[in-house]
Amino acid sequence: MRREAMKLWRGGLLATLAGDSGWGLIPDGALLVDDAGRLAWVGPSAEAPAAAEVVELQGALVTPGLVDCHTHLVYGGNRAHEFEQRLQGVSYADIARAGGGIKSTVAATRAAGEAELLASAQRRARALLAEGVTTLEVKSGYGLEAATEARMLRVARQLGALGVDVRTTFLGAHALPAEFTDAQAYIDAVCAWLPELHAAGLVDAVDAFCEHLAFSPAQVACVFEAARRLGLPVKLHAEQLSDQGGAALAARYGALSCDHLEYLSPSGVQAMAAAGTVAVLLPGAFYALRETKLPPIDALRAAGVPMALATDHNPGSSPTLSPLLMLNMACVLFGLTPEEALRGLTVNGARALGLHERGQLVAGQRADFCIWAAGHPRELAACFGHNPLIERVCQAEQAPQGEP
Ligand code: DI6
Ligand code: FE
Question: What is the DSSP secondary-structure string of 367-403?
């Protein structure tokens, strides 16, 4: 969708999500988009300024565009056989220890060329866009060697040509590759790759997997120091399978977000609250791994930690391409309200990426929004396996056909 000079969308039910709580509903509302792709005015249709072009929304629901702030969208191969193994009772950790899991995707990703990686990632990205995603984060982490990490990040950047704003995250510290036996030596290598990847414009943030089967807080701290030297923000896969104290470490580095958090401790919650770190909840992984330990939602809520929601799309623990299903799962499995869930996929997802100019339908914000065949925003969370998207308006320009 291209930018248009002063275009007015009117006659819709706006769920603005203005302020820190509430749907911010404006019945029979209107949005004025300026030629810079910003919301110039938001309010009741009856009070709307005149515009060169007018679109009638005919009562449709309008929400901010969806922000999927945690995905591993670029990879080779697939791991459906691990789904069968887990159904037989083999755990995710057992599969990883036996050389499957992340390492099997690393082998397939290293073997795949850039064009092949791009084609499969484009297919997945199109599925996310079809449900209203306008901002998409994509992590590396299936290369675990400089050249393949760079290839993944280049492919991620190229997804922007589909008409979505892409943010890239370097996740070199995802797993220990087979050619290393010494985890610290690998961490030193990861830190050494970062300046060049950053200089090539491939890195918006730095992430790591802090877990007993991945890296220790001390090793993660080395990666975070390397990020800090370059002025890059950090995020962390923290307390997914066990409490490693990762959230507190990330908070010390002013992390944008800590993600997963099923095993987050009360002190971790407090550290995140004090640092303003967003909690990214990933119900797809919780569901697919048949996890029973819930993230401490009540404690996060009580401490005022903003909660975001994402697909965590990856071939192992969360092979979903449905952000709308995540809305439903966040409510049914984690006990979020439908409003918290939608805030998680919009304004708080944006905050988890350090983006403060999107995620709400408020004048001055980026004019990324979705038009839905729904009578109230809670329907987006209540329904599942159903996509009511009518139109996605995104300021990221789509490349002409044939120029991916
Ligand atoms: N946690 C996850 O959920 C993904 N990475 C991570 O650290 C899973 C990655 C995978 O299983 O391929
Ligand atoms: Fe993840």
Answer: --EEEES-SSTHHHHH--S---EEEEE-SSPPPPTT-
Whose alpha carbon is nearest atom 11 of ligand 1?
A: 316
Please, are residues 294 and 275 in contact by the beta-carbon 8 Å criterion?
no
In this structure, the chain runs to a length of 404
In terms of CATH, what superfamily is 7-64+360-393?
A: Urease, subunit C, domain 1 (2.30.40.10)
Residue pair 272/352 in contact by the 8 Å Cβ criterion: no
Q: What pLDDT, in 10s, does the model give residues 349-381?
A: 999 999 999 999 999 999 999 999 999 999 999
Q: Per the confidence metrics, is the pTM higher than 0.90?
A: yes
Q: How far is the CA of 275 from the centre of ligand 1 (A)?
A: 25
Strand 25-33 to 61-64 pairing: unpaired
Whether ligand 1 lies within 6 angstroms of the CB of 105 is answered as yes
Each residue of 142-173: pLDDT tens digit? 999 999 999 999 999 999 999 999 999 999 99
Examine the pLDDT at 230 and tell me if it is beyond 70.
Answer: yes
Domain range summary for the chain, segments of one domain joined by +: 7-64+360-393, 66-352
Host H or E run for residue 15: strand 7-15
Q: What does 335-347 look like in DSSP terms, one character per residue?
A: ---HHHHHHHTTH
Determine whether the shortest distance from the Cβ of 240 to ligand 1 is under 6 A.
Answer: yes
User: Would you tell me how many other CB atoms lie within 10 Å of the CB of residue 363?
Assistant: 15
Determine the topology of domain 66-352 in CATH.
TIM Barrel (3.20.20)
Q: Is the CB of 314 under 6 A from ligand 1?
A: yes
The four Cα atoms 130, 134, 137, 140 give a dihedral, to 10 degrees, of 50
Per residue in 14-50, pLDDT tens? 999 999 999 999 999 999 999 999 999 999 999 999 9
Q: Say yes or no: do domains 7-64+360-393 and 66-352 share a fold.
A: no
Report CA Rg, the chain: 21
The angle formed by the CA atoms of residues 191, 353 and 232, to the nearest 5 degrees, is 30
